[in-house]
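Case study 2.
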Amino acid sequence: MEEEGKSVGKLWGGRFRKETDRRVRAFGDSLSFDFRLWPYDLQASEAHARMLIQIGVLSPAEGETILKGLQKIYGEFMDGKVEPTGEEDVHSLIETLLVKWAGEVGKKLHTGRSRNDQVATDLRLFLRDEIQAVREMLFELRLALADLAALHCETLMPGYTHLQPAQQVSFAHHLLAYYEMFTRDDQRLEDCLRRTNVLPLGAGALAGTTFALDREATAAELGFSSVAQNSMDAVSDRDFVVEFCAAASLVMVHLSRFCEELILWSTPQFGFIELDDAYTTGSSMMPQKKNPDVAELCRGKTGRVIGNLTGMLAVLKGLPLTYNKDIQEDKPLLFDSVDSLKGCLEVFIPMLLTLEVNSDRMSAAAEQGFLNATDLAEYLVRKGLPFREAHAVVGKVVLYCLEQGKQLEGMTLEEYHLFSSVFEEDVFQAVALQEGLKARRVLGGPAPEIVKQRIEEIKKILRKTD
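Prediction:
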């Protein structure tokens, strides 16, 4: 039995006369989800211990005992001998284990720190690793896009606006649009990393400590690029979590848009691609079905990640300084965003690498829908017509073709003369789809020579990044 005035198993129980209600403990404990922070809590604790030795708060013998205890605990975790039970949070769990292995001296480790700056440090160490992991996956995805695009610089396909056929592009050019999106995502994560890589440890609960901590030494050991300059902000700041959730949401939105197109393209009505059997599923009732479940789940999980961003903003929006228990809700939201994003990238990349491209169906689709109508209008402009007049002429030509069941390239010169006398024999080269694609040599355009140059630039960039 605990003595009166004690609170069972609590680091803060000295001031309390009654034990915490079991329902409140179950409601408030975070060990079930912050257990995964144990490597980072041990890493930060070792750095803190070395700093305390350096400034003379711990004697060398005490410091050695604590460091050996922390290493012992690390081995216990690695061997799976530590269960996420019995304590309020991962910090309490590790401190309890330290006292078990190092004795009473283990209680000295918490000198000059609070769980407030401790958890903020752990979370930044965790997110720093996860940002790098996501960036590595985005690198693989961007490389896969460049490699696939290199095979299809001259593969015609329709480009769409409003999901209606608009102009001819190449499949390579379409793929490289996603390369640009995922490159911006990588840049956002790199930017987020700079603000994540700031050390809060040493801020204490909110007002620092009377001990002369060497925060710069701790930052250097843990690989932080700078030290938080305001102790109140250091323990309450979760901007870096919001930034990551926002960046992750955009990555997921880009994945979702891509997945939507893969889903459409894999239908019999499009037939542009076929997804590998390993990344599709069947139906328990309809034996003919081949369902794009991976793409659909990526699309669906996007909603979760966006929801986590919204949830994180809502948690923070009304909080006064400094730490409030509300902030404990940051971890489930952040962890779910990290896991959802990495899980989607892990299956999306091989799904992309194994899909089969039906170039003939793409090219055939490009021959429908008058994708070369703008080419014909620009032909008339080069002949001297103002663009608005040329636009009107071509609109009438298209209407005629619809009535006659023809395409622009199937018209005769005599039929073209029904609409303008400026049409000449060279009109047939102007409406040839491949010729129109080749003519789009503007920087950033879909002409094969421009796309090939861009792929070479991309591969040079990725080689430098690797």
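The domain at 116-364 is CATH 1.20.200.10 (Fumarase C; Chain A, domain 2).
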